[in-house]
Amino acid sequence: MTGTEECGNCAEDSCSAKVKQAGEREQDYQDRQQLAGRMCKIKHKIIVMSGKGGVGKSTVAVNLAVSLSMKGHRVGLLDVDIHGPSVPTLLNLEDRQIQGNGDALTPIDFSEKLKVMSIGFMLQKRDDAVIWRGPMKHNVIKQFLKDVEWGDLDYLIIDSPPGTGDEPMAVCQFVEDADGAIIVTMPQEVALMDVRKSITFCQQLKMKVLGVIENMSGFSCPKCGEILEMFPSGGASNMAMQMGVPFLGQIPMDPYVASACDDGTPYVTRHADSLTTAAFMSAIKTVLNGDNSDEVVNDNSIYNNEREVKIMRIAIPIAEGKLAMHFGHCEQFALIDVEIDEKKIVGSVTETPPPHEPGVLPKWLSEKGANVIIAGGMGSRAQNLFTEQSIEVVVGASADSPEQIVKAYMDGTLEAGENVCDH
Fold it and tell me: Measured between alpha carbons, how far is 406 from 9 in angstroms, rounded to an integer?
C-alpha cells in the first residue's frame, strides 16, 4: 500500500491486508487491516538494532531521527525497548503523557517535524519497572504500530532493544515492508560477535541490513579535535565486508555526547559543527541514497549547520577480501567513502559489478559515485574510459585490504609499483 489511501481502497493486489487469511479470526483481520492502514502512510521504516546493550544504540537512533528531521523530513521515532526505554530521557520528554484520540494514541511532538512514542510515556514514575512476559510485550508493540496516529511520515525510526529476542522479532514480523535494519556496534570483538548474530537474525527473517555503524570509534579530543584510537580500529568495517553488508561509518567517542544525553538535548543540534555530527550526517546520506525520491543527496558533500564536509568515494576491485590485481577480473568492488579534510573513512559498501564488457565498469562506477579507482593493473584504453567519466585512476597498488589501501592513499604513502596489465 502506498500514499495516504485508507486500507480497503488500495489498488495494489499484492497488499496483504486485502484478503482475509484462512482460519484468521475477524478481530485479527481487522487489526491487520488497521496496522496496514497506518504503515501505508509511512514511506520508509528503519529498525535500529544492536547485538548487545551499552553500545549507544538509542543515542544513534535519536540522533539519526533528529538529523533526518533537520533535513526537513517528517519523522516518527518509536521506542520499543519495553524494559529500558531511554528515548524520553534523551529528548527531555520524561514528564510527558500519552493522549488518546478515540481509539488512537497521539504521539508526543518533539518538534514540528519529529513525533515520538515510547512505553516510557505510560509509566507513572520514571523508576517504575515493566515486568512483562513475551505475549504482553508482543501486544504492546502491535498496539504502538496499529493504534498510534503517526499520520503521513517520510521516515519511522524504530529503536529496538538489544539482542534477537521477542521485541525485535515482533517488529520485523509486524512491519512487513520495512526498508531494513541499521545495526550499531562498538569496535571490540566481543561486541562484533553479537553483531554477527544480529545480521544472521535479519537474514533469517528476510530483513535487509541497511548497514553497520561503529559507535564510540576512537576518542574525539574536546580541545584539539584529534581522534585517538581507544580500541583496535577497522573491526566493524572488516566484519561488515566479510558478511556482505554495508558499513555506514564510524562515530567517534565524544564526551559532549554524554552531557547532551543527560540534558535531553540531541547532540547533533547542540554540536552541529563537529566530527561526530558529520559522522551522523554521513550515515544519513547513505540511508537517503536508498530513497528514489527527489530528496536523494546525489553529490559528495554533507552539510551541517556551519560546515561543509567533502566526501570522496574510492573504488577498490577485490577478490577474497583483498585488492584484485586486475580490475576486470574482480569478484566485487569495495566502495569506500572518506572525509577529505580529516582523511577518515566514514563509510563503505561492497557491490557486485555487472558483467564485464568494454566500457561498462567505468559508467557503472560513475553512477555509484566513485571519484577514484585504485587497481593493481589496468589497460590504457580502460584508463581513458575512466578519465572520460571524471574518475581518477591509480594503478600499481599491491594486494592488501581495501581499508589499508585507502588509508595509504589518503596519507600519501601508497606505494604504486608497476602496472601489472598495460595493454
Answer: 52
